[in-house]
Amino acid sequence: MSVAELPATLKVLERGWVSSNNIVFLGREQSAVVDTGYGRHAAQTVDLVGRMLAGRSLDRIVNTHTHSDHIGGNAALRRAHPGVQIAIPEGDRGVIGAWDEAALHLSTMGQECERFDFDASFTAGDTLVLGEMAWRVVASPGHHMASLMLYCDQARILISADALWENGFGVIFPEVDGDHVSQGEAFAAQQATLETIAALDIATVIPGHGAPFGGVDAALERAFGRLRYFMTQPERHARNGLKVALAFLLMIEGRIELARLPQRLAALPLAARINEQYYQLDPAALAAFVVAELEKGAAAHCREGWLVSGKQTAAPD
Amino acid sequence: MTQRDAQAWIDVAAQAKVEDPTLSPCIGVCAMDAASGLCKGCLRSLDEIAAWSSASETQRRAIKATLPQRRSLILDVP
Question: Based on the domain organization, do A149 and A198 belong to the same domain?
Fold first, then answer.
């Protein structure tokens, strides 16, 4: 996939599927980073961002949305760069101000994040100057209702966060999570978000996870198709949400003892809610169901009483 | 998890990623080993991780080819 060359003032730190990518901007006067990865990886994030800054201090942190894999490095980056100003989406002021652990996915997904205070918020229609480029803030409800994207028409770059990946998009959490589970409204919002993206002139998408990519039309086609499938079969979307919740836990912990999996899943409110709505399985049956789903996609494998991440076929020596 | 178990898991997970030449070898461990200066998961240096997204496919292949032999440099398993 050919990717247009990125401007010299913009550097993408491609991370993995736990930590979001970090996009570093080196303006003449001001430096910035968009999204800061997962909390447990914060030391490496500080090191990597420091590498990019080459002795400069970090002036701004901008978060596209406040999930734990996008804000986890905020507190550590502030310790390393005490003057840094943190900006979050307008719609997330409440959850960050109150540090609402359920809304931040910390309690519902079994995740962790060091608390931080924000200095400013931004919203759709604003323009942010990052790396000497003007970035228009574009609303992207769906994966997270308050989520924002950044679009630079001069460079034809979209920073899409989890609204569009090369193959798909993030779980539409409002459809499976929260006190008032959405009844298709968040799917409709994601549809509108994809349509918004389709109307932009884009050479390169910098997604929240995975490598930057060109060929936005093909990515949109895949995303629209996937969304249509979920809208007609919401149970498949919920099943995917279950898989993602367990896969995330697995990536963080490396492996999970199968005997303890039923209780681990029962302790995840997101999994419990999805089970209640769609499956009504007892804890052991739910664990077996999710494990089978992960194995089907080769995202995990059972070995000697443990669920392990990835394609693991060889026995340990 | 014993050290040997953790080591076995990381080796296999890392191996699966090494086999695909275009994909990042990140396996989500993302912590640096102070002694070797390598990530305890993917075995890349900070410079290699930082430059990954702008590296050519040839450079990526070259980095990936060296990863398996670096494993012995990490004494401290996460």
Answer: yes
Q: What is the pLDDT of residues A161-210, one digit of tens each?
A: 999 999 999 999 999 987 778 889 999 999 999 999 999 999 999 999 99
Beta-carbon separation of A43 and B32 below 8 A: yes
**Residue A138 to residues A149, A151, A193, A210, Cα–Cα distance (Å):** 5, 7, 9, 21
Same-domain check for residues A285 and A156:
no
CATH number at residue A289: 1.10.10
Number of neighbouring beta carbons within 10 Å of residue B62: 11
Asked if residue A314 is part of any domain, the answer here is: no
Residues of chain A with C-beta less than 8 angstroms from the C-beta of B4: 316
pLDDT in tens, A155-175: 999 999 999 999 999 999 999
Q: How far apart are the first and last CA of chain A?
A: 38
Q: Which of A214, A232, A250 is the last residue of a domain?
A: A232
Q: Among all residues of chain A, which has the CA nearest to that of B47?
A: A51
Domain assignment present for A2: no
Taking 90 as the threshold, does the pLDDT of residue A102 lie above it? Answer: no
Query: Inter-axis angle of helices A216-232 and A234-253, to 10 degrees?
Result: 110
pTM of the full structure: 0.91
Do A206 and A81 reside in the same domain of the chain? yes
Contact: A6, B50; criterion CB under 8 Å = no
